[in-house]
Structures are given as C-alpha cells and as structure tokens.
Hints:
This protein is α/β, with parallel strands linked by helices. Helix content is 39%, strand content 16%. Helix 4 packs across helix 7. The chain starts with 15 loop residues before the first helix and ends with a helix. The model has no long low-confidence stretch (mean pLDDT 91). The structure holds nicotinamide-adenine-dinucleotide. Nicotinamide-adenine-dinucleotide binds at residues 38-40, 42-44, 47, 49-52, 117-120, 135, 208-210, 212-213, 234-236, 251-253.
Amino acid sequence: xxxxxxxxxxxxxxxxxxRIAEIARLLKHSRAAVAFTGAGISTSSGIPDFRSPSxxxxxxxxxxxxxxxxxxxxxxxxxxxxxxxxxxxxxxxKPNVAHYALAELETRASLQSIITQNIDALHTRAGSxxxxxxxxxxxxxxxxxxxxxxxxxxxxxxxxxxxxxxxCPACGGIIKPNVILFGxxxxxxxxxxxxxxxxxxxxxxxxxxxxxxxxxxxIPRLALRxxxxxxxxxxxxxxxxxxxxxxxxxxAAEVLPExxxxxx
Length: 264
Ligand code: NAD
C-alpha cells in the first residue's frame, strides 16, 4: 500500500496511510472535535515559527528582553526592533490549505472550534467562525497609558513604513499590539472559553505546535483528562506524542488535505 513519504511510522501496528484514514474515521464519528493550533500551521503561509532552528526569530536575542511585558516596559524599542520582520511578514500573509481545511471541517464534520496560539488571524481569514486566540492578535492595539484601543493594522503599517514606535494620539503613551507577551496573563474570557471547549471535546486535533508554551499547552492535557482522543500532526515529536492515539510527523499543509480527501 502507498504511504506518503512525509508520514513517519510512529505506530508500528498501524500502516502510515492507515493513520490518515484513521483520523478521517475519528472525525466522522466525533460529535465535538476541536483543533488546537500553533505557529507550525502558518509556516506554509510564510510566517516563521519560533522554535525551528531555521526561523531565526530567537537567534541572538534574549526572549525576555524582546518579547516579555517586563522587557516591553523597560525598553519598547527592543520589542519593536524584534517584531518588525514578523509584523511585515504577518501583514502580507494569506491562509494556506491547512487553514482552509480546518474551516471546511467546521461545515463538513464536527469541528466545533479552533483554539490557537497564533496571532496572525489566518484561521478567521480562512473562514473559521469559532476561533479562540489564546495569545491575542494584531487586529487591535492598546495605549499602555490611557488604555484606548486602536485598530491594529493602520498602526502596524505606519510602523512598518517609518519604524517609529507608535504613540497614542490622545495621551502620547506608547501603543502595544494586543498580543500576549511572556509574563502577561492570557485573556481570561478567551482562555476560559477554550477550557470549556477542551473539556467538552471528544477529539482534539493538535496541529503545528511544539506544546512547549504554558499555560496554552495545558489545553490538550485538559481534553485528555476529560476523555478526548488526541491526534497530533507536527513536523517534530512533541511531549504529548505518547498520549495521542494517532501521531503524524509531517507538514500540516500536506496532511490536512489528505485527510479531507479521505472524508470525501
Ligand atoms: P513553536 O515555534 O514552539 O512550534 C512550532 C512547531 O510547529 C514545531 O514543533 C515545528 O516542528 C512545527 N512545524 C513547523 N512547520 C510545520 C508544518 N508546516 N507542519 C506541521 N508542523 C510544523 O510554536 P508554538 O507551539 O505555536 O508556540 C510558540 C509561540 O509563538 C506561540 O505562543 C505563538 O503565539 C507564537 N508564534 C505565533 C506565530 C503566528 O501567529 N503565526 C508565529 C510564530 C510564533
């Protein structure tokens, strides 16, 4: 039987191609599936993840200096210098086939919601309607002094053209995109809604995440504890592989369309 070359045979008792079919079968029989996604689902859209060595996003930088709330308060210039390239790529990125496949699963199967760690908004742009953005998004930005909220895109585009730290027109305070930096609390309502979705799910598709960033990484654990089955689609092994019923070490942009073909 033909096995796609990117499928690593993690389950010796299950042929590679059968694992795609098994995921399709699980989706067909699920009544409440939830997807939990990370930066890996967007690499095919040209947005680098953080941990793959080739991305370079953490090369030669101290994450606590450039991407923590303490660093931001001390020296926002460091954050803005670091985020420049990521913002540039993210502003122009488009959803890829993996995002579109999840949007389709909402209508064709039982996918109830997407819990994402991504800030790129590509799930909503692909048409998914119930998306919990645990780490915020770039659609809005907030003045760190008077807390006035602004639409994020014009502020980012202005910053991309003049590289000047954005300031609040009302009070002159420094504006910060509504993304969650290290040391910041996750948005309470969003995190709570994601926890409820995880507790009620019977199948969780974990896609493109190293599962290294807490507390977001507690979400699959919560789903498991409440009886959900776990499917992992990631390029590299994750700490949850042993707990999953199906693991595919491959490219989400190749695996998800294969699953959709099996659902047809
Ligand atoms: P991560 O960088 O820690 O891990 C990404 C994982 O995805 C890696 O294990 C990698 O092997 C895998 N991967 C890369 N490309 C893949 C592909 N095409 N198919 C399947 N797997 C692939 O990312 P994370 O777990 O999401 O956590 C890092 C944090 O970085 C998150 O908080 C997130 O907010 C933030 N982040 C977001 C974006 C974005 O919005 N697109 C981009 C970079 C980082």
